Amino acid sequence: LNKFINKEQTEIKFTKVTDFLKSNMKVLEVTAVILSLYSFKTITRNPVWFDNMSLYIAGVQDSPNSCRNHYLYGIELKNRDAEKEKDWTKRDSIYNHALREMQISINLYNPYFDAYRDMGLIYYKKAGRNRLVLDSLITSITKIYKSGDSTSTTFINLNNQINDLTKEYTKDTTNAFKDYNTALKYNPRDDKTWNNKGVVIFELKRYQEALNYFNEAVKWNPRYVDALKNLGSAYGTLHQWDPAIQCFLEALKYAPTDPTVINYLGATYNYKGDKANAAIWNAKAQELQGAPKK
Predict the structure, then answer these.
(1) Rounded to two decimals, what is the model's pTM?
(2) How far apart are CA 274 and CA 270, in angstroms?
(3) From CA 10, how far away is CA 186, in angstroms rounded?
(4) The dihedral of CA 8, 13, 16, 19: what is its sign?
């Protein structure tokens, strides 16, 4: 919209306020009427804007053919409701509602890459089949851990089962990857989609391929801390310690107190065999952990 406005704008300079008023009296009269109308509408709508959710629901009701309104409603369902819901069945129901809203936005405007990207993220987060089994295993392993018997064969076997179930049952990576690819088809420069795509591939243990996606994310947004962390993690997993350290140090430029980055630096220096730097960064991590929260 801004591009079109700039094209249509003509530069007119006035030396006095009275000159401006005289030249624009008719325009100002019309503008005053328009503003009064919009002001009235704003005032009458304020009572339903208790929070973002109320605003987006009202937006969908008032403008059902707005792809943006459906997308924002879906985002709010995902961010506010689903991610705070403890009951996974209720959470999945909310996720499904969010998916429907985003699908509507895509139906209204097919190249809506934001909607594809966030649909991919929802598929990645949604619970899948046999979640009850997974919940039961988590309950059992938590009891063993609290008893202090975390080295027992039972604990190790349960941990392996949980890892397998988590990957197999709780993440719809197929649909996530499909939607990420569609998002990139419409916007190949979207750093968040490249990063999210890399996460899916990383968790499938295709680390070398994940490097490519994280590198793309950083290429389009060099200050993207999450992508730098993920890129460093991928290098570290491949035992490429120096590039991993460089990524973490780069991330610290933009997030100097990020505890995850500082911990990763300590661990990476340790794996590299650089005990001196490992000690420095581990001390910083402990210092940060003990610092009072602001």
Answers:
(1) 0.68
(2) 6
(3) 33
(4) negative
